[in-house]
Amino acid sequence: MNIDRNTVAVITGAASGIGRATALRFAKQGAALAISDVNAKGLAETAQAARAFGVKVTEHVLDVADKEAMQNFAAEVQQQHGRASILLNNAGVAILGTAEELSIDDYEWLLGINLFGVIYGTKCFLPLLRQQPEAYILNVSSIFGIIAPTGQSAYVAAKFGVRGFTESLRHELKDSNVRVATIHPGGIKTNIAASAKLGSSANPADHQDTATRFDNVARTTPEQAAERIMRGILRGEKRILIGADAKILAFLQRIVPVNYWRVLGPWFEKQLGTE
């Protein structure tokens, strides 16, 4: 699929990180943008930077966990752009704590954004995407949608869910005009760890340096991630691994699908303090 001035790209979580970098990469290619986030200030900054490329940009401040807001988002895109060619379901959050430390409310909050936000985006925009000669749905999972570290049960549940939902969707749409891909980033230098919520019963002292540790091991920039996503779209890829770490961890999981944590656990404990 080509990306040019006939393309309208819809991106959630576009105020920062991968969402912002990909929006700017699409804009550089000439695509019009419909971008969303709960962070109005960050979203406006992304929009301003994208408009410097001479493309049409509409801003939509919303929570992807709000089903009605997502339905309205799709209606606004149809009204303001007339179509949608690419959907990047990217919005996501993190929470710190073990399964015992997280409350049911904690799980519902994260799953609402990270999993149902993807489902709502897909369901609300698929009718628009169906109308195009070529279209693409890209759902952001994670390397934690392939491996399951300790202390991340809510995030893992959501990201494995995104992976499963997207793979099933891809099989269902295999003979259609809509291509479907999962995106599995490894460690990306974004603010997701720094802005992570603390689980209801989690001890702050156990997680006070989590963001710093994450920054020390995250090797891929959002801009590099955006280039990888662009390359995946142009190649028509069905699964996009971002970063050498993601490739290595995915390979290890394939060769030791049950016992990979015996190898990875000590490394994660040392690097990220997850145990």
Q: Unreliable stretches, pLDDT < 50, 5 or more residues?
A: none
Please name the fourth-level CATH homologous superfamily.
NAD(P)-binding Rossmann-like Domain
Query: Nearest-angstrom radius of gyration?
Result: 18 Å
Number of helices: 11
Count the beta strands: 9
Average pLDDT for all residues: 92
**From the coordinates shown, what is the CATH architecture?**
3-Layer(aba) Sandwich
What is the helix/strand order?
Answer: EHEHEHEEHHEHEEHHHEHH
Q: CATH top level?
A: Alpha Beta
- The proportion of residues forming helix, as a percent range, comes to 40-55%
Enter the CATH topology name: Rossmann fold
Q: What is the general shape? A: globular
Describe this structure as you would to a colleague.
The strands form two sheets. The protein has a seven-stranded parallel beta sheet, with helices on both faces. Strands 5-8 form a two-stranded parallel ribbon. The radius of gyration is 18 Å and the shape is globular. With 275 residues, the protein is of the alpha/beta class. The protein has helices spanning 17-28, 40-51, 67-81, 104-114, 116-130, 153-172, 204-207, 210-217, 222-235, 244-255, 260-272; strands at residues 8-11, 32-37, 57-61, 86-89, 95-96, 135-140, 178-185, 197-198, 239-242. It has a single domain (8-272), classed as Rossmann fold. The longest helix has 20 residues, at 153-172.
